[in-house]
Amino acid sequence: MATEKHGIAYIAAEAGYFEKRVLRKYAGVWSLWALGVGAVISGQYSGWNLGLHSGGWGGMLIATIIIAVMYLGLTFSIAEMSPALPHTGAAYSFARTTMGQWGGFVTGLFENVEYVLTPAVVVFFIGAYLTGIFETPTAFQPVWWILGYVVFVGLNVTGVELSFKVTVIVTLLALAVLLVFFVSAIPFFDFSRWALNIGPGGTELPEGNGPFLPMGIAGAFAAMPFAVWSFLAIEQLPLAAEESADPKRDMPKGIILGMLTLILTAFLILFLNPALPGVGSFKLGSSGEPLLDGFRAIYGSGLAKVLAFVAIIGLVASFHTIIFAQGRQIYSLSRAGYFPPFLSVTHDKRRTPHVAMVAGALVGLAIMLALFFGLGADAGSAVIGGTLLNMAVFGAMCSYIAQAVSFILLRRNHAAIERPYRSPFGIPGAVLTIVIAVVTLGFQLSDPVYRAGVLGVAIWFAIGIVYFAFVGRHRLILSPEEEFALDHAGKPRDGAPAGRPAGAA
User: Fold this and answer.
1) What is the CA 44 to chain-centroid distance, rounded?
2) What is the CB neighbour count within 10 angstroms for residue 349?
3) CA gap 397, 435 in Å, rounded
4) Measured on CA atoms in the order 80, 81, 83, 84, is the torsion positive or negative?
5) In this predicted model, what pLDDT tens digit does every residue of 282-303 receive, in sequence order?
6) CATH class, 18-487 region
């Protein structure tokens, strides 16, 4: 082991360490665009609508505008950082360069919570749809979750080429379904009667024509965690940096095109879905299948099962793509020694981080089962799904704050690093991201229904920090992210063995 300084020590990687952890390059601009859009698109099929219960339609509109501004600041910051630091570590890599090992680890831990729990939320809603299609009892839902993980972890393990091809196909299909819905909904659109059918205090107004802000401006802030679901995970694209054919050219294009696509679809679904006859904001505010409710209103319940299969495509797109991100995020932290290194071993033929993906799936599934049996199988989508959603959003908001801080520090302290792309919003955009994320966190903590889930995430953070303090920080390895950070630190490599390990490039 190398001499330890400032509480951090690097160990020499064993022979063949990096050869066992090789990823394969494949993705271009449109693969990256599909990865970003596909990861998010399920949030416009299920999840966003729960914010209607908190703020009414007007509150949800304001919340979505605020959150869209936050994501523009974030994604343009990431579009600058990712080609400048083109490593799989993404958020951890950005923070590691600007805030040292502790900053990198804590940021990576925040993002880890997001990418372990987000697929759990998505597969929860997949289970809700499949329960309706096959008329299985509520107690059967965990079987749907397990099957979902087995199928899509398996697809991701098979190879990056297949993974990206499936991503492009299911993302295009998911967007096609939304396009059909938008066109079909326009003739039935009755905004005042249905979208404004929530009164003060959250009561239903049978004739509609209610106030724009039935819960006041506080309701708009309370809806912000749910508005996040229309965009959450677009920031995962840098995790594919080492599998991108030309990350310096393609990564900014993929991120920005993906964000613009999602802004358009998010506002269309918000305007059209609640305004359909028999649907309305009040009913939609507690629905586990809002898009299906909309299709039923347009085409009738006789086609319900066929429509449910159609509506599930968006959920499948997100589930598949976020499992991809989950595997790469765990892989990068474990390759550098922050997590146990065995998690970063890649398949000897397919070069996919199969151990990381299986481990992340098992953790996500365990948390789902704990909530399912702890809250009770009959707790409902708004409680179980909403709790999982808020846990994922809490981790995401913490990660966004850290990434925005990384951007500011990178601009101020590392001006010499080559930047193939520069954010037009600069430091003010990053500051705005931090402010909105902090406000969102505050309103998450104010909701007693979901506070227990947020506290559970805080315990997750605490366990991770204890592990790093007593184990991880004494056994770091010079991965590409660590090499880059140490080379740009402007000071000696404290505690690091000299030279690049074989295969670390």
Assistant:
1) 13
2) 7
3) 11
4) positive
5) 999 988 789 989 999 999 888 8
6) mainly alpha
Location of structure tokens 């299969």: 309
This prediction's pTM: 0.91
Cα 72 from Cα 44, distance rounded (Å)? 18
User: How far, CA to CA in Å, does 302 sit from each of 106, 232, 250, 305, 313?
Assistant: 51, 33, 45, 8, 20
Three-class HEC string of 65-91: HHHHHHHHHHHHHHHHHHHHCCCCCCH
What would you report as the CA-atom Rg of the chain, rounded to the nearest whole angstrom?
Answer: 22
Mean per-residue pLDDT for 246-272?
95
Is residue 254 within 8 A of residue 36, CB to CB? The reply is yes
Dihedral of CA 271/276/281/284: which sign? Answer: negative
Tens of pLDDT, residues 131-143: 878 889 988 999 9
Residue 329 or 448, more confident:
329
User: CA dihedral defined by 161, 164, 167, 171, rounded to 10 degrees?
Assistant: -130
Q: CB pairs under 8 A, 24+ apart, for 97-102?
A: 97/406, 97/410, 97/414, 97/481, 97/484, 97/485, 97/488, 98/405, 98/406, 98/409, 98/410, 98/413, 98/414, 99/402, 99/405, 99/406, 99/409, 100/485, 101/8, 101/473, 101/476, 102/468, 102/473
What residues have CB less than 8 Å from 72, skipping those under 6 apart? 259, 425, 429
Residue 490 binned pLDDT confidence (cut-offs 50, 70, 90)? low
Q: Closest Cα to residue 440, out of 228, 219, 213?
A: 228
> Considering only CA atoms, which of 430, 503, 402, 482 is closest in space to residue 88?
482
Q: Beta-strand (E) ranges in 107-242?
A: none
Provide mean pLDDT across the span 53-82. Answer: 96
Tokens of 87: 């490593």
Q: Which of 77, 75, 97 has its CA nearest to residue 87?
A: 97
| Distance from C-alpha of 442 to C-alpha of 95, rounded to nearest angstrom | 23
- The per-residue pLDDT for range 429-484, each reduced to its tens digit, is 999 999 999 999 988 888 777 787 888 899 999 999 999 999 999 999 999 999 99
